[in-house]
Amino acid sequence: MADRELTFEIFRYNPQKPETKPYLQTYKLKETTGMTVFVALNMIREEQDPSLMFDFVCRAAICGSCAMIINGRPRLACKTLTKTLPAKIKLFPLPVFKLIGDLSVDTGTWFRHLSLKTESWIHTSKTFDPKAQEERMDNKTALEIYEAERCIECGCCIAGCATANIREDFLGAAGINRVARFMVDPRDERTPEQYFEVVGSEEGAFGCMGLMACDDNCPMELPLQMQLAFVRRKIAKIGLGVKEKKGVKLA
Amino acid sequence: MSIYQTHMTDVLVVGAGLAGERIAVEAASQGQDVIILSLVPPRRSHSTAAQGGMQASLGNCAMGEGDNPDVHFADTVKGSDWGCDQEVARLFVETAPVAVREMAVWGVPWSRVVAGQRTLPDGRVIEEKKEKEGLITARDFGGTAKWRTCYTADGTGHTLQYTMDSMVIKMGITVHDRTEAISLIHDGEQCIGVVARCLRTGDLRVYIAKTTVICTGGYGRLYSASTNAVINEGNGMFVALNTGVVPLGNMEAVQFHPTGMVPVWILITEGARGDGGYLLDKNLDRFMPDYEPKKKELASRDVVSRRMTQHMRKGLGVDSPYGPHLWLDIRHLGAEHINTNLREIANIARNFAGVDPVKDLIPVRPTQHYSMGGVRTNKDGAAYGLRGLFAAGEAACWDLHGFNRLGGNSLAETITAGRIIGKKVAEYTKDATINYNYQLVDDAVKEQENRIKALVNGWHGKENVYEIRNEMEKNLMDYVGIFRNGKDLQKAVDNLREVYHRSLKIGLRSNGEGPNPELAQALRMPGMVRLALCIAYGALMRTESRGSHAREDYPKRDDTNWLKRTLAYWPEGADLPELKYEPVKITELPPGDRGYGESSAESQGGKNG
Ligand SMILES: Cc1cc2nc3c(=O)[nH]c(=O)nc-3n(C[C@H](O)[C@H](O)[C@H](O)COP(=O)(O)OP(=O)(O)OC[C@H]3O[C@@H](n4cnc5c(N)ncnc54)[C@H](O)[C@@H]3O)c2cc1C
Ligand code: SF4
Ligand code: SF4
Ligand code: FES
């Protein structure tokens, strides 16, 4: 295994120089033990082509920076061992997101927009009293919130989603999961109707075609299918005029 | 000048990690205009990688009962080996509980106390009280008298950063991500902003601000093996050092962790050894019992790290394309134990090294972990040397950690210092005026523009930036690592001086156009080598052992001569820092024994992270 020669075919394009059309560039590299696509790309940059653009920060599947299309599938490059791939490895940037250059895309701007659109912060009328003891919360609830909050905004679910690839304004599984995170949080005082405004449309829960590519692609193994169903169920109820008591949480 | 995009603001925060965003929130809530700059989208900052937790003496869980700021204070000062500023430590321990509760109101799903009996891994049975149920709980971390580390499952840094950023978004604070500050604009007395490079287009930009705050995190990546994110290159520190008037404090104080995993140096927590894992050498011999017959693999973090290094120096490390390493062996613990109790570690080994610890050995070696030193500030966070410049978080030497940081105290520092220093920033900015000097700004931009032209055209030489970087990393790793001695340190200083001169002669191999990554690295390189020299030279001159600074030739702490903080300046044209010293403030707890049962040189670091 450690003696394989790997052939990388990498998408190259600099949007600032549109006169040079996108092309695939080939690099050859000797595989080393424990090599990940992170290690390989850095070797290529240092030893063969210092102009090659890609993004890594944590290199530990924590920060969500390094998603790309690896042999046809959206994955985190830092969490992909070359030994799990054939000797020929094709790398493309994620679709949907704006291309910065080569393998680097602007997921940050996209996700900030998502946070704004879903108003991803605790809506509360309470102010902080530095002298008071904290409000109590059931540990089970805390873990439930955490489960949905584990999303690292990598964009894999968006890149692989048929709807997101055709509807620019679609929130995608990450967006719907985000809404679910606040729905289960008792500190957030939004009413069911307010959530309906956020996700009760084609941009939100109803744009989804339910093919579940997102669920397969999420490197954090978030239960996206379950979250989609949960949000859709709650939202449908409101759409149908089923009244839940005001101020009572959906969850 | 007019060809550059220019932004004006009251407060410019350089860095969008926890420290930076907390300061931004504070200043914005006091009505000031704030712009945050960051290399990456805020939520990708290194703070998200901290999984362990943060210390605050809430005293809610059974093992934290009776905790209070005084106990936290004593732990912090002892941990620092009396190197910290005690006034700052006091301020910190009193504020940390407030900062944790505030984060709860903003949205962090802190893990909570669950009432009832529980058996700990070591067999002790504890009882969580009913009346504490639902309050914020805490876990155990090394070096603390009480369980004080508040956490959210295995994602404390992630939830803190996401919550903090949600406040930044809610408040509409401007964030320019993929923007790198590359120099400070100043006249020797006052800082009036930065020159920055856009990492989307490669263009230079100017930011003018009444107050500039450096929150750029640590410098782990100066070392070839570091648990830190790849963007932790000490940018903010050398940008401040380059002014010639702002000093860096205690740069020689560097924390290591014994088990970073080869080849990507992801941290493997103490849990593996705690549950009975062995360390093996290239002959598959278990060597720790030879050095530490009593505690073996369970000796303190620093001791294990040093023994590992010592053993590898004898040529008993395993050779690999990534340098020598040792093995961590947990196979004998059995598949069931590994896949349940040590699941996190097993996953890291499988995902990032491709080894299955049930049947394979895990490659590990001591790895750089935390930077205690940084931009020296007073207790208000104001940098020495320039008005209008502040610093906070890992980039700063506020001096909470002295010569050794306790695990869990650095996340706590980011939001606590953010809260305290944010207020001081707001106060200062309210009354500040800037003397906007056109010429000064123009010169500052031109200087950077010329540097870029020289690099692109190879005017000063054709040195390869990656080779220089590897040389620097290797010198720090080999000679300014876990344990140190005069001979090696001198070698490091000599070599790094040469590397520094070479770093001034870099020429690009690519064309440097647009957001070119080689150019970005080349622009940072001389500054990074300067930091490396501050670390190596500071360590050479400090002829004692204190906290993480362990000298083989001076194994004892020396309070008579060395109860002082190093201040490193970089005079114009120099190829070595100029070192000055200042006394360490002792207000409450006089120097004594750390009570770790070992000499200072073999002191205990924090656990986990
Ligand atoms: C693996 C690991 C685990 C850890 N676990 C724990 C733990 O459990 N508990 C604990 O207390 N501590 C832990 N730590 C330490 C802790 O995570 C850090 O000290 C802390 O998060 C630093 O926060 P910060 O805000 O100072 O900097 P960072 O979070 O590093 O943020 C720095 C910011 O500055 C920006 N930046 C840098 N340079 C520039 C520039 N030139 N221009 C513009 N922007 C720039 C970056 O983009 C980033 O936004 C851990 C560290 C590691 C490596
Ligand atoms: S299930 Fe819905 S969100 Fe997921 S990939 Fe399919 S269309 Fe997209
Ligand atoms: S839901 Fe999963 S795939 Fe989608 S952005 Fe979040 S972590 Fe990535
Ligand atoms: S680099 Fe952070 S997720 Fe891959």
Helix and strand layout, with pairings?
The complex is a heterodimer of chains A (251) and B (609).
Chain A: E1 5-12, E2 23-30, H1 37-47, E3 67-70, E4 73-76, E5 88-92, E6 99-101, E7 104-105, H2 107-117, H3 139-149, H4 156-159, H5 162-166, H6 172-183, H7 192-199, H8 213-217, H9 224-239
Parallel strand pairs in A: 1-5
Antiparallel strand pairs in A: 1-2, 3-4, 3-5, 6-7
Chain B: E1 5-14, H1 18-29, E2 34-37, E3 54-55, H2 69-79, H3 86-106, E4 116-119, E5 125-128, E6 149-150, H4 156-170, E7 174-176, E8 179-186, E9 191-198, E10 204-214, H5 235-241, E11 248-249, E12 254-261, E13 266-267, H6 271-274, E14 278-280, H7 288-291, H8 301-316, E15 326-329, H9 335-340, H10 343-352, E16 362-371, E17 374-376, E18 389-391, E19 396-397, H11 409-431, H12 438-457, H13 465-479, E20 483-484, H14 486-503, H15 517-541, E21 550-551, H16 559-562, E22 564-569, E23 578-583
Helix pairs in contact in B: 1-4, 1-11, 2-3, 3-11, 5-15, 13-14, 13-15, 14-15
Bound molecules: flavin-adenine dinucleotide, iron/sulfur cluster (2 copies) and FE2/S2 (inorganic) cluster.
Task: Give a structural overview.
Chain B: It is found in: Membrane. Chain B: The active site is at residue 301. Chain B: Belongs to the FAD-dependent oxidoreductase 2 family. FRD/SDH subfamily. Chain B: It comes from Desulfoscipio geothermicus DSM 3669. Chain B: One of its GO terms (biological process) is electron transport chain. The complex is a heterodimer of chains A (251) and B (609). Chain A has 251 residues and is an alpha+beta fold. Helices cover 33% and strands 14% of the residues of chain A. In chain A, helix 3 (139-149) runs antiparallel to helix 6 (172-183) and helix 7 packs across helix 9 (224-239). In chain A, 47% of the residues are buried. Chain B has helices spanning 18-29, 69-79, 86-106, 156-170, 235-241, 271-274, 288-291, 301-316, 335-340, 343-352, 409-431, 438-457, 465-479, 486-503, 517-541, 559-562; strands at 5-14, 34-37, 54-55, 116-119, 125-128, 149-150, 174-176, 179-186, 191-198, 204-214, 248-249, 254-261, 266-267, 278-280, 326-329, 362-371, 374-376, 389-391, 396-397, 483-484, 550-551, 564-569, 578-583. With 609 residues, chain B is an alpha/beta fold. In chain B, the strands form 6 sheets. In chain B, strands 1, 2, 7, 8, 9, 10 and 18 form a 7-stranded mixed beta sheet that branches. In chain B, strands 19-17-11-22-23 form a 5-stranded mixed beta sheet. Chain B has a 5-stranded antiparallel beta sheet with strand order 13-12-16-15-14. Chain B folds into 3 domains: 5-57 and 86-105 and 157-254 and 370-430, FAD/NAD(P)-binding domain (3-Layer(bba) Sandwich); 257-368, Alpha-Beta Complex (Flavocytochrome C3, Chain A, domain 1); 442-571, Fumarate reductase/succinate dehydrogenase flavoprotein-like, C-terminal domain (Methane Monooxygenase Hydroxylase, Chain G, domain 1, Up-down Bundle). The chains are: A alpha+beta (251), B alpha/beta (609). Chains A and B meet through helix 1, helix 2 and helix 3 of A and helix 3, helix 4 and helix 10 of B. One iron/sulfur cluster binds at residues 161-164, 172-173, 208-214 of chain A. Flavin-adenine dinucleotide binds at residues 14-20, 37-40, 42, 45-47, 49-54, 157, 180-181, 215-217, 227-228, 231-232, 235-236, 267, 369-370, 393-395, 407-412, 414, 608-609 of chain B.
